[in-house]
Amino acid sequence: MKIVFDFGGVVFRWHPASFLARIWPHRIETLEQGAAAAVVFFQNYGGDWGLFDQGLIGADEVVRRISARTGWPRGDVAAVVRAVPDELMLIPATAVLIRDLRAAGHTLHFLSNMPEPYADHLSRSFPLNEWFESGLFSGRVKQIKPSAEMFAMAERHFNAPPQDLLFLDDHPANVDAALSRDWQAFLFTDAASARRELVSRRLLSA
After folding, report:
1. What is the DSSP letter of 170?
2. What are the structural domain ranges in the chain?
3. Does domain 2-13+89-200 fall into CATH 3.90.1150.10?
4. What values do phi and psi take at 55, rounded to 5?
5. In degrees to the nearest 10, what's the CA dihedral of 158, 184, 204, 154?
6. How would residue 130 be classed by pLDDT, with cut points 50, 70 and 90?
7. 31: how many CB neighbours lie within 10 A of its CB?
8. What is the pLDDT of residues 8-23, one digit of tens each?
9. Average pLDDT, stretch 117-131?
10. Residue 184: in which H helix or E strand, if any?
11. Predicted pLDDT at 206
12. Which of 51, 128, 178, 182 has the most CB within a 10 Å radius?
C-alpha cells in the first residue's frame, strides 16, 4: 500500500480564518469574520486562487485580480500572499504519523494543490525527500485536485494502480475524486483520528 498525503491542513498548518485574522487585524476581529473573508479571498480554491494554485498565473497577477475583484487594497492582498509560507508550519502530530508509517515499511507520497512559490518554500524548508518517495505539486505540473487528470498523473508518477493508493486529504471533494478513480481514501480531520483509521485498516499497529 502506498500512502499519499495532502499538504495544507494535513501535514502543514492551514487555517484560513485565523490566518487572515492575524494578517489583517485592522479588518478582521473574529474568527467568523476571518472565515467569511477567506471564502471571498480564496474562492474555495477556485477562481483566481485556483489559477495561482495551478501555476497558470503568478503571485503579482493573483494579487491584482483579487484586489480588482474585491476592492481590497492591493497592498493588503499582497500582504496575505506574502505571509502564506509562514502559515505553513509543520503539524507535529502528523510528522510523528509520517515517521511511524515509514517505520512500518510503507511508501509515502504527496499530492498537493500548492502554487510554485510555496512549493519551493516547502522544498527548501523541510526534508520532503526524506519523508516521501515522491510527490506532485499542482503549481509545478499545471493540474489541480480534484480534476481527474491530476489523479491520473499521480497514478503514473507513483507507478501504482489506483487500488494500491490510500489518500489522506482534508477536502471532501478531493477525497470523493480519489474514490471515484478507485483509490482508497478518507477525510483527514486531525492526526489522532487519522491514526485510528490507519490502525483500523491494519496499516499501523495500535
Report:
1. S
2. 2-13+89-200, 16-87
3. no
4. 75, 20
5. 20
6. very high
7. 14
8. 999 999 999 999 999 9
9. 97
10. strand 184-187
11. 78
12. 178
